[in-house]
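Q: Give me the 3D complex with coenzyme A.
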Amino acid sequence: MVVTFRSLEAEDKTQWLTLWKGYNDFYASDLSEDVTEYTWARLIDPGSSMFCRVAVMDGAVVGFAHCVLHEGTWVTSPICYLEDLFVDPVWRGKGVARELIQFVLNEAKAQGWSRFYWHTRIHNPARKLYDEFVPADDFVRYCVSL
Ligand SMILES: CC(C)(COP(=O)(O)OP(=O)(O)OC[C@H]1O[C@@H](n2cnc3c(N)ncnc32)[C@H](O)[C@@H]1OP(=O)(O)O)[C@@H](O)C(=O)NCCC(=O)NCCS
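A: Here is the predicted complex, encoded as structure tokens.
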């Protein structure tokens, strides 16, 4: 099984939309088309602070990592936040997400970014995978929806 990793490209839109729908279904989220279109536009805009790396098998996009680069008060180089991670259910359990995270991590190191982080729900079984990269810390999240 050969998986390759690269940036999201304009031609990927149909495949990306299918995966994005799967991700939204996973979170039982009903995002408006406006948000989806705006997200797509930023992910393929090289001038945006958001970016997407995809996993590709036999020419098909089978997973994505959506990231946001932001500044930080404790550092002098950007911090990379992994906001969304998804692998097509058909291709799960084969190490695709592990390699995708490693791909972004390698990029973060090569770019000299200062931190690479993500959140997940406390009981998400994917924590087994995340624990391979770094132990979870003891911060908790406070989030006011506006
Ligand atoms: C989480 C997700 C991206 C993992 O993708 P994946 O390609 O199947 O993960 P990998 O094959 O690289 O997993 C590597 C290891 O973690 C384990 N693992 C990863 N996700 C798991 C899950 N959801 N349930 C059980 N085990 C999981 C695998 O068993 C595997 O362990 P092994 O190598 O000892 O067998 C995928 O399950 C997914 O898209 N889930 C729905 C969305 C989601 O939860 N996204 C993350 C939000 S923080």
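A quick observation: The pocket of coenzyme A is lined by residues 26, 85-87, 92-98, 120, 124-126, 128-129 (CB under 6 Å).
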